[in-house]
Amino acid sequence: SSIQAEHAVACQLGKARFSDNSFCFRRFFSTSDMDDHVLTALEDLRYDGPLVNEELFAKEIEEAKSIKFTGLVAWLSTQIKSLCNMEDHVNAITDLDDWNTFLLELSGFLKEMQCPLTVLTEGPVSQRLVSKENRLLLLGFLCDELEAARMIKVLRPDSGALQVQMDESPVAKAMKGMLITLGFGKPPPNITPAQLFSKAESKVRELVPKAGPAVMSKPLFAGGLTEKQWFALAKLQEQMQGEYRVRRETLIKRLDVTIQSFLWAERLKGMEDKIMTAYQPRRKLMETEPNVSVGHVLAAREDLTMLEKT
Question: How far is CA 251 from the centre of its chain?
Fold first, then answer.
């Protein structure tokens, strides 16, 4: 409605302030109508996930822990993040054993949004979504914030002409860094890849002998591979990549569980947000995908095999 739209924009622009336990749609709807309000808002937002079904939504919102509920929250948070240039978003879970991880991510996201609802931002993290009303409050808050963000995007579009952002591939990024290091200028637009690599190779062959073994030792692998061997090497690397990915996922999962176990201690009650503020920035730096490629192996030097013990 126009009232909701106007109020949502006012929320986003800071023209309206809420008391600690009030919320936009609470001013216009009774608690019994919250379900309908959220469903209507999701329809307006063009949400097409499983909870667009009224019966399924009613069933899942009654559950204290719901995987589909986390999927809806993840969708809303991702939409808001993309429009508001935020750092955090909430990931959906596929196993209810990860519910605490979901709650911790949600806590960080709401903190970045400066959510005014203390029932969602204060007290033990594990208790914030226990009640159905709080779960509806969360969905209503996220829906209204997303509506406001989309309206502002329309009312205040980016100035200037259409901007096209090109993502630089890892190979292009590495090539660019190599050319800069070797002292090359910007390659002419008509140069072929073969010509570019040939010039780079000639420059490397010229510089390596001058650097000396102290700077660059001999390559660990100096042989050549047939096409069949290249395919075999790529397959082996893929298998090892998968194994190390699983190892990383396991270690990171253990770390998440360890941090969660700290939050259960009585002496740390009320310090959940402080702990997560310190942990989340470090956690985001941990990636499950290994970053070692065949190229790293081929570029390895003899000194890689030397281990110094102190």
Answer: 19
